[in-house]
Amino acid sequence: MAVLENKIIAIVRGVYGEDCLNLAKALCEGGIKLLEVTFDQSNPDAWKKTADTVKRLVEELGDQMAFGTGTVTTLEMVELAKNAGAQFIVSPNTNEKVIRATVEAGMVSMPGAMTPSEVLNACLENGVSVLKAKNKIRLLDICIIITDRKCFLH
Questions:
Q1: Is 22 helix (H, G, I), strand (E, B) or coil?
Q2: I want to staple 110 with a disulfide (CB 3.0 to 4.6 A). Which of 54, 74, 117, 130 is the partner?
Q3: Which residues are identified as catalytic?
Q4: Long-range contacts of range 104-112, CB-CB < 8 Å, 24 or more positions apart?
Q5: How far apart, in whole angstroms, are the C-alpha atoms of residue 70 and residue 11?
Q6: 2-152 maps to which CATH number?
Q7: For position 135, what pLDDT does the model report?
Q8: Domain residues of the chain, as ranges?
């Protein structure tokens, strides 16, 4: 799993097409192998631009980097990401429908979780292997890699 191997994910927001491709090439040359292209929640018309950008990135750099989409909140976004060739999905919450659709599509699901209940639901019930843990005041986001679900069973 590229996410577990590389650990650092660069995030781009509002950067599409050739500009995003050039940015991805520079990141790759600098050693970054994961890139998240976020969906613009304020502009659903831009969702296709996000998907088209991911598709182009996968086509041109997919042998060197892994690409995913972020701020995924709907099943429509999951489908757009899947059809574009995304390998991972980052979500701001633990929406079970989004998580399940992501996992069923063969992509890595990385939902945001704050409470122990959200963590347990995401991991045990929905097959999540990487979580974005959020503290209450949002000063720090920490990525947690779940390697052994048994730790939650005692």
A1: helix
A2: 130
A3: 36, 132
A4: 105/78, 107/68, 107/78, 107/81, 107/82, 108/1, 108/3, 108/68, 110/3, 110/143, 112/141
A5: 8
A6: 3.20.20.70
A7: 53
A8: 2-152
